[in-house]
Automatic annotation (TrEMBL):
Domain NIF system FeS cluster assembly NifU N-terminal: 10-128
Name listed for the protein in its UniProt record: Nitrogen fixation protein NifU
One of the GO biological process terms: iron-sulfur cluster assembly
InterPro entries noted in UniProt: NIF_FeS_clus_asmbl_NifU_N (IPR002871)
Organism of provenance: Amphibacillus marinus
PANTHER family: IRON-SULFUR CLUSTER ASSEMBLY ENZYME NIFU HOMOLOG (PTHR10093)
GO terms, molecular function: iron ion binding; iron-sulfur cluster binding
Entries under Pfam families matching the protein: NifU_N (PF01592)
Amino acid sequence: MSFNNLDTLYRQVIMDHYKNPRNKGALSEETLTLEMNNPTCGDRILLHLLLEGDHVKDAKFEGEGCSISLASASMMTQAIKGQEIKNALEMSAYFSNMMLGEEEQSSLEMGDIEALQGVAKFPARIKCATLAWKAMEKAIDQNQAED
């Protein structure tokens, strides 16, 4: 597949998650909730995580922002649901490295998230893409500190 076709496909995946976000809304059960924002562009994410043992049982988000921010939140919640917490954190580390343009091999199944790799070419948009991931890391860190 040529670069232009791949770029077009990635844009379509991002716009699909933006226009049809997966896991948008609140969870009905008592959850771990964390709000983060990106003051430079106005993105705001309210992340809801339901942790059960060492797994992310469910994940949803609310908020507003640009297409990159909301698509990333949609992709992230879809990817971490059902994962062990350590795998969710490994995914986050991999994603952060991908946003920095650092190539690394991973056995993690990232799915649609790979579509965001082009964001690395636009430094001003990296914070948009990583907002939900940073919220997930912070929420898990706070939860583990309380245990």
